[in-house]
Amino acid sequence: MVRVLGIDHLAIRVGNLRRSAAFYEDLLGFMGFEREWEFGKTVGWNNGRTMYWITEADAKGKKHKHHIGDVGFHHYAFELSRPGDVDKVYERLVEMGAEVIDPPADYPDYGEGYRAVYFLDPDGLKLEAMYFAEKRKRLRGKR
Q1: Between vectors from CA 27 to CA 14 and to CA 130, what angle results, nearest 5°?
Q2: Fewest C-beta in 10 Å: which of 8, 19, 37, 78?
Q3: Can you give the residue range of the structural domain that contains 13?
Q4: C-alpha triplet 132, 102, 10: angle, nearest 5°
Q5: 83 with 42, same domain?
Q6: 79 and 52 in a common domain
Q7: Residue 21 sits in a domain of what CATH number?
Q8: For the chain, what is the domain count?
Q9: Inside any domain, residue 3
Q10: Cα–Cα distance between 30 and 45 in angstroms, integer?
């Protein structure tokens, strides 16, 4: 059997590299990522466990804005270490002027202790910052 250890990196296309790099530099820096790569039209951040890369879309791609509901990317969730961190990320998003689509809330239907904030990046890609107590308990039980 092959065992997946986790998601190594996510690479997304953006409409304006400079605008998106500034957004992600602020957000990812706040969440403990460091900018590690910058080459051509690609910028990448790393937190020692996960890498997040952006690269500028080509001319054809820039003509078609992302639409939530299309086939493809739905959203990406950043797992946080404490439930209160969800609120801290929300506060940072407000300071940044980011579009928050669902402010911090508890989602008991998702499982015990699920708390999240949902927001959009400059191209309308849906992102989530979340904490999940039930998952943490399950992981502790496997040790």
Answers
A1: 100
A2: 8
A3: 1-59
A4: 60
A5: no
A6: no
A7: 3.10.180.10
A8: 2
A9: yes
A10: 12
Domain presence at residue 67: no
Task: Report CA-CA distances (Å) from 123 to 118, 130, 136, 143.
Answer: 14, 21, 32, 40
Higher-pLDDT residue of 143, 58: 58
Burial 73-100 (b: 16+ CB within 10 A, else e): eeeeebebeebebbbbbbebbeeeebee
- Tokens coding 95: 């300071």
| CA dist., res. 27 & res. 80, Å (int) | 13
Residue ranges of E strands in the chain: 9-14, 34-39, 42-46, 51-56, 76-79, 99-106, 114-120, 126-132
Amino acid present at 88: K
Structure tokens at 20: 């998106």
